[in-house]
């Protein structure tokens, strides 16, 4: 019986200890940073060759990537974190819709 009470007391002590979050690994967002840089470079190099619709798609993708990065690294309140998350979803959604529209104009309507 004392063995069971010892186990129970150990479990209670473990649950009372505050769990500290594990520190974030440095460089976990390196892929996101690379995507942001590549998107920005493509946008700057191809600005004169891109159509208006393609520019809008790249700008929306850049906004979505930057807002994802801001959501992960900026010290924002919960309210503003939700706003940034929704902004990211809206940018990605509009970029996808404009991409579908661009494909329609180039391949189906042409």
Automatic annotation (TrEMBL):
Membrane-crossing residue ranges in chain numbering: 30-50, 86-109
Name this protein carries in UniProt: Uncharacterized protein
Region called Disordered, residue ranges: 1-26
Record keyword Transmembrane present: yes
Protein keywords: Membrane, Transmembrane, Transmembrane helix
The organism's taxonomic lineage, starting at the top: Bacteria, Bacillati, Bacillota, Negativicutes, Selenomonadales
Chain intervals with Basic and acidic residues compositional bias: 7-16
Species of provenance: Pectinatus brassicae
Domain of life: Bacteria
